[in-house]
Amino acid sequence: MRKTKLFTPDLLDRFRKEGRGQGTYIRYRPWHCISRGDPSSDGRSHLMTWGGRQRNLLSDDEWVASLFTPLTPGADDLREQFPLSLETGSHELGAYDVRLGKPGLPGTLEIARQLGFRHPRVNGNGRSAPWVITTDLLFALMDESGGRKLLAVACKPKAELDERTKKLLAIEQAYWMARGVEWLLITPAQYEEEVELTLRCSFQWWQREPVSDETKLAAADLARELEGFPLSYVLDRIDTALGQGFEFAQGAFWQSVWTRVLPLDLRRGWRPHLPIELLSPSDFLAFNPIASRRTAWN
């Protein structure tokens, strides 16, 4: 039986040599990856390919939170399992624009000392080294003027946390506060179970080959005209109008939802016999804990 791989100073050194935690967009490589060469996570891991890159999500909670990415206005990049600097370093925006890489910002070792907390460490092969704390999801957001900012998100299965976990999250929050970056703690309490289920079940349609903006608008216009009818009927009408097959109609409909063109009530579920109901853009956005900046951290 294969032994469970453990984190050691040597393993962290290997991660650094491999360039873990470096890069942006499709060139980014997470600090923790789902592979035989990495220790296994405590939760159920997910490997998802979208945005031109394979995403390494170490729990159901990270996966669900990541599904809100296309529903978040201005979301330009998402780096999962992002490592925080141990020592004094530069602002993480510098990876996108060197002019934004403000230097002299405190690392987690200094922040832990300031908070009076013991910084976690790993041991092995006669060595001891500080553990590298990571942020589950680090969003890069663009505003309408082209300005860029970061949004850090930690994902946990519940808001009730043990004292050691709270201290580690406090270090993480203070790290991002020192950089002027908003930090959220997302648990299932920050989104509705019905919304989660709809996103999980419709994800395959967003992940498929993208349809054109014109096609999404056409599908959304038809859906608005047919609000209150069962989804199956709406899809048949979209299929008839577009003339490229029922699967294509499915993709056009759900991609219009996932790209915020069609503000569908996500609580309706995904099953075809259910009628579609629409919301105002603001009410649709309120389903999204990332866009709404909801947090379980007090």
TrEMBL record:
<dbReference type="InterPro" id="IPR011856">
    <property type="entry name" value="tRNA_endonuc-like_dom_sf"/>
</dbReference>
<keyword id="KW-0540">Nuclease</keyword>
<keyword id="KW-0378">Hydrolase</keyword>
<dbReference type="InterPro" id="IPR011335">
    <property type="entry name" value="Restrct_endonuc-II-like"/>
</dbReference>
<dbReference type="Pfam" id="PF08722">
    <property type="entry name" value="Tn7_TnsA-like_N"/>
</dbReference>
<feature type="domain" description="TnsA endonuclease N-terminal">
    <location>
        <begin position="108"/>
        <end position="187"/>
    </location>
</feature>
<protein>
    <submittedName>
        <fullName>TnsA endonuclease N-terminal domain-containing protein</fullName>
    </submittedName>
</protein>
<keyword id="KW-0255">Endonuclease</keyword>
<dbReference type="GO" id="GO:0004519">
    <property type="term" value="F:endonuclease activity"/>
</dbReference>
<dbReference type="InterPro" id="IPR014833">
    <property type="entry name" value="TnsA_N"/>
</dbReference>
